[in-house]
Structures are given as structure tokens and as C-alpha cells.
Amino acid sequence: WTHVGLAKAETQCEVLAIDASSFYQAVITQNQVSSVVLSYSKQWLKSFLSAAPPQFEWPNDLSVPQTEWSELVGRMDGYWRKEISLEALESFKQSLGSWRSFSHSSGCNLAEEFHAGKCILVVRDNGDVERIVDVISFEIHRQQDDHIFVQIGRWDFGRVVPSCLYPGGKREHTEAVEDAKDRLFTDKLNFLKDFLDISNAEHTIQKTSVEKHGLVNTY
């Protein structure tokens, strides 16, 4: 380990040191705990190994791209995605005080969404429940004139409906960004695949709040 400087805390904080060998021995005695830790660890390592320019900044001692709890849950095994989402849904239900009122809220059927694999639910550090939809999109410029390739509409029941979007789609669970890019260009944008040069990539998180229920939505 190379000492390269000093770190000074600007606010009161706690530091937890865990002995790796002792932690491992404690975890393997509990089947459920060891299973979720293994699933989490696999995804953390996969994110760590894929963290490199131009897609992401290099990892360091304080930050590793794509390793937030919500990001890793989104790529864990399907069983644990479901279990963690169910726990979060139960927490959300209790915070509302009435499951009946939530079930009949317009446009907010979270149970159906995560069972269909359209989102996941996690409990954040402050106790709030977060709904996460993982998407990936591409900003494609034409070199000659810097025009941007976008969708301006979609065919819906015999008519064109305005829908201005960058090309892209939902990112499947356990799928790294690079794998999602390859899949989308193979499936949806195959006609452009041989003419594109990916020069830069950014990972952005957009959060909106549904005021009626206090639910945070992350895309």
C-alpha cells in the first residue's frame, strides 16, 4: 500500500474496518446472507474491472464508477432483485399507512412494474424508497455537418405519434454498459454499426420526485 497524502474529514464521520477473512467466515455460515453477498460482490467486481476511460473515470480509493447500491442491485441475480424490491415495496407501503390507497393510485402500480422487470425498488440510506429504471441512450453525430441522429416519432395503431428520443433502450439486469451498447447496436441499430466510432461516453443519473407519495424515481 502506497501512502500518497492526507485525508481530512470536513464533517463528523465514522470509519468501519472489516477483517476480510473473519467477514468471509461469518458470511459463509448463513446461506441467504452468503448468497446475496456473492451476487453483490460479483457485480461490484464486474463494475470495477470495466471502470476505464472513455466510458468512465478510473476508480480510486474513494469512488468506483457503477458501484452505488442501487446500480449494483439492478444487475444482481433476478431472485435478489425481486427480494430486495419486495422489501422496499413493503417499506413504502408502511410509510403510506394505507396499502389500499396506494394500490388504487393512478399510474403507480409498482408491484406490477418490478415483477415485469421494468424497474427495481431499493431503500435508500435515509429510509426513502427509490424506483430505478436503467436506460442507455446514444447521441450520434454525423461527421460532415454535426447533425444528430434522433427518433422523431413512432408508429402507434396506424398513425404516427410524436416521440423525440435519442436511440437507445432499457439496460438488462446483469448487463454492463459496454454489453448493452453492443446489444443495442446489433438489435436496433445494426444498419449503423459499421459506420460509428464511439469517441466518448457519459454516465448520468436523473432523479425526479413524485410529490404525492414522496417516491424518488431514478433513470
Please report which band the strand proportion falls in: under 5%, 5-15%, 15-25%, 25-35%, 35-45% or over 45%: 15-25%
General form:
globular
Strand order within the widest beta sheet: 1-2-10-9
Q: Radius of gyration over alpha carbons?
A: 21 Å
Fraction in helix: 25-40%
Note the run of SSEs as H and E: HHHHHHEEEEEEEEHEE
Give unreliable regions as ranges: none
Number of DSSP E strands: 10
> Strand count, sense and closure of the main sheet?
4 strands, mixed
Straight-line distance between termini: 37 Å
* Class based on secondary structure composition and strand pairing: alpha+beta
Mean pLDDT: 78
Tally of individual helices: 7
Structure notes:
- The radius of gyration is 21 Å and the shape is globular.
- By secondary structure, the chain is an alpha+beta fold.
- The chain contains 7 helices and 10 strands.
- The strands form 4 sheets. The chain has a 4-stranded mixed beta sheet.
- A hairpin with a 2-residue loop joins strand 6 and strand 7 (159-165).
- It has helices at residues 20-27, 31-50, 69-73, 78-96, 99-103, 110-115, 177-187; strands at 120-123, 129-132, 135-137, 140-141, 148-149, 151-156, 159-165, 168-170, 207-210, 215-218.
- The model has no long low-confidence stretch (mean pLDDT 78).
- It starts with 19 loop residues before the first helix and ends with a strand.
